[in-house]
Give the backbone structure.
Amino acid sequence: MKLALPALTFLAVPLAAAAVEAGEPAPARQRELIHLVRQDCGSCHGMKLTGGLGSPLTAEALRDKPLEGLEATIHGGRPGTAMPPWKTILSESEIQWIVHKLMTGFPTE
Ligand code: HEC
C-alpha cells in the first residue's frame, strides 16, 4: 500500500490544490460526493456501505486500516478485484475527505 504514495502526489490534479488549502470540498461539492459514494460506491459496497460485492466501508470496519492505504485503493483501484480506480473522477483532497467521512461515519445526505 505504501508504494502508491509517491505516485499519488505526482498524479494529484492541479485544481485540487485550492481544495487542499481550503481543507475540504465546497459545500455543494460535498453534497455531490455524498451522493456519489451512496450511489456509485454503494452499488458494490452496499447502500448502507455495510458490504456487498465490495467490503464494508463503515467506520467500524475501517477503524484499524491505515488512511494512506484506503486513499490509495480509492485513487488507483485494486488490481485483480472489482474495485475500480477513481482518480479521473475524484481529486486527491476529495478522496481524503471521503476517507475521513467514512472513518467517522458517512453522512446520509
Ligand atoms: C464495481 C464495484 C466497486 C465499486 C463501484 C467501488 N468499489 Fe470499492 N471495492 C470493491 C471491492 C470488490 C473491494 C475489495 C477488494 C479486495 O478484495 O481487496 C473494494 C475495496 C475498497 C476499499 C478498501 C477497503 C478495505 O477494507 O481495505 C475502499 C476504501 C473502497 N473500496 C472504497 C470505494 C469507494 C469510496 C468507492 C466509490 C468512489 C468504491 N469503493 C467503489 C468494489 C467496488
Summary: Helices lie at 5-11, 16-22, 27-45, 59-62, 67-76, 92-103. The pocket of heme C is lined by residues 37, 40-41, 43-45, 53-55, 57, 65, 70, 73-74, 78, 81-84, 86, 98 (CB under 6 Å).
